[in-house]
């Protein structure tokens, strides 16, 4: 069994396809999908998908690329969603210093406030980190949350070690399948086995085996996992076992979802 730790099933690209996508994921051996929200406006959609599909687990957060239209009142709404028993994490939250014109001060404000909620409610965190590794680490050292997952990790070995020390697993997906991603593939091959989880980030970050313009989907996770198996020189079954154990250790509420299947 595999777990997709990051899938945006509510994305517009998947409108009208939810049943088919979830069925295909189940047929491919995906035991659970984590659905992170990105802003207050899609909390309800993510919650509804989690209620409709027993193997889909919602997480709620305000993504750094959406803070420009966030308000402090959104944090109150977020807190109410995070208090729901089906919520497995705070996320997707973090910092993104890649896109031109970003508001670092506003990003850091919402990130800090959401880390406070994670600590208050004792929830793990799903981190978005793009060109902001060290600043994210600074906030995590101050907040001392219970850990979580660094989504689409692409930092250095030293940064990876710091995230691991703070209780985070590092997530790998479609980017790892590209042979030119040498640094990322070296990380995937050499990091401690108990530090790695898998994701698709569907419909984004399509793997190398898809044609140009095709959307990523959770059913492709085993093929992504095969790349990890080859990089580490182990069987695919071992990757499934290892990464599933790692996810359940850092997102413990997922155990209830899987046990109910």
Notes on the structure:
Helix 8 crosses helix 9 (about 235-250). The longest helix has 18 residues, at about 105-120. Helix 5 (about 135-145) links the parallel strand 5 (about 125-130) and strand 6. This protein is α/β, with parallel strands linked by helices. It is built from ten helices and eight strands. A five-stranded parallel beta sheet has the order 4-5-6-7-8. It has one domain (about 1-260): TIM Barrel. The model has no long low-confidence stretch (mean pLDDT about 95). It is globular. It has helices at about 20-25, 45-50, 70-80, 105-120, 135-145, 155-165, 180-190, 220-230, 235-250, 255-260, and strands at about 1-5, 30-35, 55-60, 90-95, 125-130, 150, 170, 195-200.
SSE string, helices as H and strands as E = EHEHEHEHEHEHEHEHHH
- Poorly predicted parts: none
Architecture (CATH level 2) name? Alpha-Beta Barrel
The total beta strand count reads 8
- Please tell me what the overall shape is: globular
Major sheet strand order: 4-5-6-7-8
State the separation between the terminal residues, measured CA to CA.
12 Å
**How helical, in percent, are the residues?**
40-55%
Mean pLDDT: 97
- The CATH superfamily bears the name Metal-dependent hydrolases
Considering the chains and any ligands shown, give keywords for the structure.
single chain; 261 residues; 43% helix; globular; 10 helices; TIM Barrel; five-stranded parallel β-sheet; alpha/beta; three-stranded parallel β-sheet
